[in-house]
Design goal:
By secondary structure, the protein is an alpha/beta fold. The protein has one domain: 3-Layer(aba) Sandwich (Rossmann fold). Helix content is about 35%, strand content about 25%. The protein contains eight helices and ten strands. The strands form two sheets. Strands 6-7-8-3-9-10 form a six-stranded mixed β-sheet, with helices on both faces. Helix 6 links the parallel strand 7 and strand 8. The structure holds adenosine-5'-diphosphate (ADP) and magnesium ion (MG) (2 copies). Adenosine-5'-diphosphate binds next to strand 1 and helix 1. It holds the Pfam family ABC_tran. It comes from Microbacterium sediminicola.
């Protein structure tokens, strides 16, 4: 079992106005085999949490910690985080000219495992994973992210997840821009990875829609850069009915 522990995390981002605090004491523990949903209104700091776990240079941790099985994640380079077993979907959002999907995936797999997978087995695995996600085999020969549609980007993300077999995956707005059919296919991919490898998932989303297909065991509501409420799947159901208004417009006399 692996554990990702986020403790009292404070994060600032550099803006024209200087260093602006975005996360104000975020505490969260994710174990392999668990699915946690982070939900909240726009601008509450959800993506900032994902970028901070990913090691994006724009985000500065001013206090608090992130550890994976006791190892200091904040001291790790982006590559080291991947090798340690963290999957951060937004890690490679850029176009990589001249690098095909299949070569990119094999390079990533080799970097994580410390050795290249046998070409034969690898080709078979990629084919299988692509067929699971109902992707056109031609997709493997496209250049990474070059002209990918929103839906193709998301499927490529889940293809990586299935093939790289991380311990903990952070998925930020994986549901955005997907129609219902694509959402189901992508969700099935995440659920397959959960079953096959006991993956831990940190599923970040504004909307409850994806949670019908990927059921979280824990739901955390983030407002103003900190968790304001936690519960089980029933909390997601309540948010679907009520939205975030109750967190944003407290009644008179409330804190
Ligand atoms: P969410 O994902 O919950 O919508 P974000 O983490 O993207 O929220 O943003 C939280 C707040 O931090 C917003 O006010 C946003 O404008 C600000 N912010 C986040 N990243 C940056 C950035 N790179 N530059 C400037 N402001 C940022
Ligand atoms: Mg946003
Ligand atoms: Mg966001």
């Amino acid at each position: 079992m692996s554990v990702l522990e986020i403790r009292d995390l404070h994060v600032t981002v550099e803006t024209e106005a200087g260093e602006t605090p975005i996360l104000n004491g975020m505490t969260l523990t994710i174990k392999t085999g668990q699915t946690h949903a982070i939900m909240g209104p726009n601008g509450s700091g959800k993506s900032t949490l994902a970028y901070t776990i990913a090691g994006h240079p724009k985000y500065t941790v001013t206090s608090g910690s992130i550890t994976l099985d006791g190892e200091d994640v904040l001291e790790m380079s982006v590559d080291e985080r991947a090798r340690a077993g963290l999957f951060l979907a937004m890690q490679y959002p850029v176009e990589i000219p001249g690098v095909t999907v299949t070569n990119f995936l094999r390079t990533a797999k080799s970097a994580i495992d410390g050795e290249a997978p046998s070409l034969r087995a690898w080709t078979k695995d990629v084919k299988q994973a692509m067929s699971n996600l109902r992707m056109d085999p031609k997709f493997a020969q496209r250049n990474v992210n070059e002209g990918f549609s929103g839906g193709e980007k998301k499927r490529h993300e889940i293809l990586q997840l299935e093939l790289l077999q991380p311990k903990i995956a952070v998925l930020d707005e994986t549901d955005s821009g997907l129609d219902v059919d694509a959402l189901k296919i992508v969700s099935e991919g995440v659920n397959r990875a959960k079953e096959a490898t006991d993956l831990g998932v940190l599923l970040i989303t504004h909307y409850t829609r994806i949670l019908r297909y990927i059921r979280p065991d824990h739901v955390h509501v983030v407002v103003g850069g900190r968790i304001v409420e936690e519960g089980g799947p029933e909390l997601a159901d309540r948010l679907e009915d009520e939205g975030y208004d109750r967190y944003l417009a407290p009644a008179d006399g409330a804190v």
